[in-house]
Every structure is written in structure tokens, then in C-alpha cells.
Design brief:
heterotrimer; A alpha/beta; B alpha+beta; C mainly alpha; A: alpha/beta; Peroxisomal Thiolase, Chain A, domain 1; 11-stranded mixed β-sheet; 3-stranded mixed β-sheet; 11 helices; B: alpha+beta; 7 helices; globular
């Protein structure tokens, strides 16, 4: 089977518009979750991690010029701007890749342009824009991708499933390169829903902590350029060594009581990558900071023989970015791997899960060779993926 | 190894077809809710949770239920069975319902039992719970039914030995318009074609998926 | 109280889509959760919405739900006490 390498990547969150900008915020311990009091989002105070709108619009207008598009910037939705900016940052030095017939575009999102259901957007954008394939068509057309994009919408594991899907189609030889992107925006739609689930924390979320009271929502976009051909200029090539999904078959919103199903996904990817638990250097967990998710995840990690492995959740920095999370957090995990740095799990102070997991409490250098990223979501879905240095 | 379709169902326009035979048809039903309820009753399914599901889950649930009534997956371990579904409008039908509960500030009552269904993959979760399916699962979106994509995706699961059996198909509901198709895919040597109806062996490929979708 | 209990039964059946249940099936003193009606965590959250929507009563701490939603009667008593 052909190895699949990550040639380039991008993250856009409240903490920056590139992977480097986000990493520099992580280095400084900056948290992007803020108290927001805006009727646009919710009739009441809420914790959110938001991308800077002024910066977003400035950068997007500049990208329109690069591609010589004579289209007004405001004919694109907030989410479309995020996707286009993120993809542009990843392929700007490999621009021909988009127009290569052997390049696949994979898009992950949970809710797409869902804010267009709001009355204030109804007069501006057509109803068609709510369809995820229309979102895909707009992104494809912007860059001139040859192939129809594959679109994944699988709750909070969407981003990991997107990377997995691209990897499988590259390994099978169907394509040589893939641009994999995941994005979601903060919206009244999603905020009100999670609030009705009483799932939102009134303070920035605290994954794996004893005093965690729920998640913080965020928005963002993450993109990877994958290829079966290793980039020659790379210092430390990272490849995708395995990926799997499972289902709890337990409840549509509550996670498994035992963590067995997530653990099965983790064991499957370790087997696929031909590594033992002792060879895993780091776990980038889903860590939403809801009581049940973190509990389940800690059990799954222990069941997989990985209780000793340093673990963090990035959600304490930029919240839960939903369909973007798998991509955004994978890119951050790969950055950690390449730079031999472990980042503290923001919000964590006192161990608060029943299984003994090794949550990272300070930023520090460490010799890293492989990383497992996990994700779980509504519908009982779980995913695990393993990133490895050559 | 050849993979074959060992059972299938199609639900569309008040009509239900299972393995090529007409199982249900009532011309005069105008509402989606009445259609799925009538099928549920006719087949004497007993599953109170059915009534709590949103439209897309109800339709997909029935489609899967009818397939697995034809051909059991009881011989497989839960982790060997996968489920891959697709559609065009994601969960838009239920998204609109959720939106109605929040678009008026003086009657702002978002409902958790509606919101939970504003993700298309919940239908996969419902079928997994019902039949203890724990293997690979994914939900794909395409403008119209894409037999090639679905086939390529599921083939990779078999090629990588992630599944020994897989439910896959299409489930689309928007208002009263609806179409569902679910097929059960198995390795040919381990499977016997539907005991009850004697479905002729059909290779699992895009052509046959398109055929099932269009002919019915 | 009996009137409120009957009204609540109907509302619970409607809100939770208990299609095959009639008001007569529900004993006002039997536990709503666990055995019986087969309610789950989403139903519990849905009952919180019901109280707010139909009776203007807001439950700030979901942990209080356990006592309030023990049975139809406990719900009725809570409503009688807290209704504005």
C-alpha cells in the first residue's frame, strides 16, 4: 500500500490564520474562547471562540485579487471565505495541484452554510446555498478542481473521516494528491441546540478536569495537502499510518458507557500502523469537556493500553469546531509531532475522569515519533487516526 | 473476491420494493408521515423509538429493517458490519424544523429531541443501535445519487478487511418528497442470496446500484 | 390537581412522541424514567423545555430534574408550587 504524506497544512481559528500563527498562540498559552453577549448568536451570554471578522474579510479580499476574481467579497458566505482562505494557504505554492485530474478534494462540515436559514441572510443568498454539495461546487469552482469533491457530514468525527477517506483513495491508487478541508462556523442554530442539551459551559471549557461543566463552541477551518509522493523539501515527513471508525450502537447522543468501541478504533489503527502501545508518543484527544465524553474517552484510552501516553485536548484553546475539529486538531497534532513539542491541555487542573490518563500540564519539548488523534460524535460514531514520522 | 448484493429495499412515492417485489403501495397517501407509519404498521414492526425519530431516520430505519428482515446479519460480529449512507440535502428537513423553534425571540424554545437529528448520520446511529452494528460508518453528500462514489467507498472497506458485510445506500427526505434505498453487501462465498425471495445474485457495483435506484 | 395531571399526561405523550401510549397507560405515581415508558436522557431535557414552554417555569440546574420529573404527580406538584 502506498504511504500517504502530509505535504502542507493550515489552521484558521480565533488564534490565527495559519498553522504557524496558531502554534505561536499555543506557545504563549493564549486562549481564544471569549464571553460573547451578542443577540446574533444567542439571547444571553455565551462562551465562544470566533475567527476575527475584520481580518477574515481583509485576507479574503486579498485572495480574490490573487485569483483575479471579479466577484464581490460579500457574495461569499462566512464559511466559504474560511474554506477558500484555508485551502489557498495550503496550495498557494502548489497551485497546479488543484487543476490536476489526479487530485481529489474532500470537504468535511457538519452544518455548512446553516446560518443562511436566518432571516437576515434570506434576501442575500439563495436557498440552494444551504446544500452541502453547492458549498462544494463553489469551492471547487473557485480553485478549478477537476474532480467533484467528496463531501463528508458525519457529526463531530467528520474531519477525521475526511482525512481517512482521502487517505484510502490515495492508497488505492485512484488519486495521487488530495486537498482535505474541514470547516464550520458558530451560528445561532448550533448554539441554541447545544444550549438545549445543557451541554455548554459558562466558562471556557475544561477538558478532563474535575470541574468541567460542558463544552465551548468554536469556529474554524483546517486543511491538509496529502500526497503519495513525499515532499523533497520536508525536514521530517509525516504520514498517515492508519485510520478507522466504529459505532457505539448505544445511544444517539450519549456516548458508550465502556469506551470499548472507540478503543476498538484505536487498536485497529495501531495494528494497521504495526505499532505497539509503547510506541505511541502522544494522543490528541477529542476532549469536549462534557462529563460523559471525557469519561468515555479516558476509558477507551486505558482499554487500549495507552493510559501512560501524554494526552491533550485542543478544545480548551479554540473550543469545539465541530466538522472542522478533526482537521484543525490533526494539523495541530502533526505540528506537535514535527516540532517535538507537547502542548498543555488548556483548562485542565485537577484530574476528573475515572481512568488514569496522562493529561499534559505544561508545554514542553519531547521526542515524538507517532500520534493518535481521536474523535467521537452524535450518532454514536468514533474515529481514530495515526500520524507517524518516517 | 466478488461482492454481491444479498438484499435490497427501495422506498419511494408511497411504494416499497424489497428484492424486486412490491411490498407496499397506496396511491392515496399524500403525507410522508402517513406513508412511513402505514409501512411500519403493515410490517408489524414493534419499536416504540421509531415514533421519536425524525423523517429521514424513519425512512432509513424502515429501509434497513426491511433488508435485514430478508437477510440476517446475525452471523457476523458487530464490528465486522459497516454502514455507509448518502443523500443530497443532509438533514435540511429537520434543520428547518429546528430553525422554526429559534427564529422568534419571543417563542425561543429549541428542542433537544429535534436538534439531535440535525445531523444526517443519526440515521446510521439508529440502525446501529437497533441491529448492534459497530463497524465502519460514514455519511456522504452528493447532489444526486452517486453509485460510483458509494461503491468505491464500500469497496475500500472490504479491500482493507474492515467489514465482512455492509449496509449502504441513499436516504433523502425533504417535506413530503422522499427516497430511500438500502442494500446489504456481502462477500459472495460467505453469503447465500436471500433465502426467502430468491433474489438473483447481483454483483455489487455502481451499475447495479443505479439499476436498483432507477428501476424501482 | 387531577385536571393538571391529565393535562400533563397528554402533554408528555405529545412532546415525547409516545405514539403507542395513552393517558390511561400512565400511572401518575410511577417513575417516568427507568422501566415503564422507556424514557432516556433526551426525554429528560425535553421535559425541561416542556415546563418552560407550557408553564413558563425555568429549571436552572438540570440536576433538580431528577426530583421534579420523578413522576407525573411530582411534576404537577412542582408546577402548582412554581407557576407564576
Amino acid at each position: 500500500m502506498k504511504p500517504v504524506y502530509i505535504l502542507n497544512d493550515n489552521i484558521i481559528t480565533s488564534l490565527g490564520f495559519t498553522t504557524a500563527e496558531n502554534a505561536s498562540s499555543l506557545d504563549s498559552g493564549i486562549i481564544g474562547i471569549r464571553t460573547i453577549n451578542d443577540q446574533e448568536f444567542y439571547p444571553g451570554q455565551i462562551q465562544l471562540s470566533l475567527v476575527d471578522t475584520v481580518q477574515l474579510d481583509l485576507k479574503f479580499s486579498a485572495v480574490l485579487k490573487v485569483y483575479q476574481k471579479n466577484i464581490p467579497a460579500d457574495s461569499f458566505t462566512r464559511l466559504e471565505k474560511l474554506f477558500i482562505l484555508s485551502i489557498h494557504d495550503v496550495i498557494k505554492d502548489h497551485i497546479v495541484i488543484a487543476k490536476n485530474a489526479r487530485t481529489l478534494l474532500v470537504i468535511s462540515t457538519t452544518k455548512g452554510n446553516i446560518n443562511l436559514l436566518e432571516n437576515r441572510f434570506k434576501a442575500i443568498f439563495s436557498h440552494k446555498r444551504l446544500y452541502l454539495w453547492e458549498l462544494g461546487r463553489i469551492i471547487r469552482q473557485f480553485f478549478g478542481f477537476v474532480n467533484t469533491p467528496v463531501i463528508i457530514s458525519n457529526a463531530c468525527i467528520s474531519g477525521v473521516v475526511a482525512v481517512m477517506t482521502a487517505t484510502r483513495f490515495l492508497q488505492s491508487g485512484a488519486f495521487d494528491h488530495a486537498v482535505v478541508t474541514g470547516g464550520d462556523i458558530a451560528s445561532e442554530f448550533v448554539i441554541s441546540g447545544f444550549q438545549s442539551f445543557q451541554a455548554l459551559s459558562t466558562k471556557p471549557c475544561k477538558p478532563f478536569d474535575l470541574n468541567r461543566t460542558g463544552l465551548s463552541l468554536g469556529e474554524g477551518c483546517g486543511t491538509m495537502l496529502l500526497s503519495t509522493i513525499s515532499g523533497t523539501a520536508e525536514v521530517s515527513p509525516v504520514r498517515i499510518a492508519g485510520a478507522a471508525t466504529t459505532n457505539d450502537a448505544n445511544h444517539i447522543s450519549g456516548p458508550s458507557r465502556t469506551g470499548e468501541e472507540l478503543s476498538h478504533a484505536i487498536k485497529t489503527v495501531m495494528k494497521q500502523a504495526m505499532v505497539e502501545p509503547g510506541q505511541i508518543s502522544y494522543i490528541s484527544a477529542h476532549g469536549t469537556a462534557t462529563s460523559f465524553n471525557d469519561e468515555m474517552e479516558s476509558k477507551a484510552v486505558e482499554l487500549s493500553g495507552l493510559a501512560h501516553v501524554p494526552l491533550n485536548s485542543f478544545k480548551g484553546y479554540w473550543g469545539h469546531t465541530l466538522g472542522a475539529a478533526g482537521l484543525v486538531e490533526s494539523v495541530a497534532a502533526v505540528f506537535s509531532l514535527r516540532n517535538n513539542t507537547l502542548y498543555r491541555s488548556a483548562g485542565f487542573e485537577i484530574p476528573g475522569v475515572s481512568a488514569p490518563v496522562n493529561v499534559i500540564t505544561t508545554n514542553h519539548p519531547a521526542s515524538l515519533t507517532s500520534c493518535i488523534k481521536t474523535a467521537s460524535g452524535f450518532g454514536g460514531c468514533n474515529a481514530a487516526i495515526i500520524y507517524q514520522k518516517d | 473476491m466478488n461482492r454481491i448484493i444479498t438484499a435490497y429495499s427501495v422506498l419511494h412515492d408511497n411504494k416499497v420494493i424489497v428484492n424486486g417485489r412490491l411490498l407496499f403501495y397506496q396511491e392515496n397517501i399524500t403525507k410522508f408521515a402517513d406513508f412511513v407509519k402505514a409501512v411500519f404498521k403493515q410490517e408489524q414492526f414493534s419499536y416504540p423509538k421509531f415514533y421519536k425519530m425524525d423523517s429521514i431516520s424513519k425512512l432509513g430505519f424502515l429501509a434497513a429493517e426491511l433488508v435485514l428482515k430478508e437477510k440476517t446479519i446475525a452471523g457476523y460480529s458487530p464490528l465486522e458490519v459497516g454502514m455507509v449512507m448518502s443523500n443530497s440535502s443532509s438533514s435540511l428537513d429537520t434543520d428547518i424544523t429546528h430553525n422554526e423553534t429559534i427564529n422568534n425571540r419571543s417563542a425561543f424554545f429549541p428542542s433537544p429531541s429535534v436538534f439531535v437529528y440535525t445531523l444526517p448520520n443519526i440515521i446510521i446511529g439508529e440502525v446501529c443501535i437497533r441491529h448492534r452494528i459497530k463497524g465502519e460508518n460514514a455519511f456522504l453528500i452528493s447532489e444526486t445519487f452517486d453509485g460510483n462514489l458509494l461503491c468505491d467507498y464500500v469497496d475500500e472497506l472490504f479491500n482493507n478487511e474492515r467489514v465482512a458485510a455492509c449496509l449502504c445506500g441513499w436516504v433523502e427526505v425533504l417535506g413530503d418528497r422522499n427516497t430511500a434505498m438500502v442494500v446489504l453487501v456481502e462477500n459472495s462465498e460467505q453469503s447465500q442470496v436471500s433465502e426467502r425471495s430468491g433474489l438473483k445474485p447481483m454483483l455489487f457495483n455502481a451499475e447495479n446500484l443505479n439499476f436498483i435506484m432507477k428501476r424501482n | 390537581m387531577d385536571e393538571l395531571i391529565l393535562k400533563l399526561k397528554k402533554e408528555v405523550i405529545e412532546q415525547l412522541n409516545l405514539e403507542e401510549t395513552t393517558p390511561e397507560d400512565i400511572n401518575p405515581d410511577s417513575p417516568l424514567f427507568g422501566e415503564g415508558l422507556g424514557l432516556d436522557s433526551i426525554d429528560a431535557l425535553e421535559l425541561i423545555v416542556l415546563l418552560e414552554k407550557n408553564y413558563g417555569i425555568k429549571i436552572e440546574d438540570p440536576k433538580d430534574g431528577k426530583k421534579i420529573f420523578f413522576s407525573i404527580r411530582s411534576m404537577a406538584e412542582y408546577i402548582t408550587e412554581h407557576k407564576k
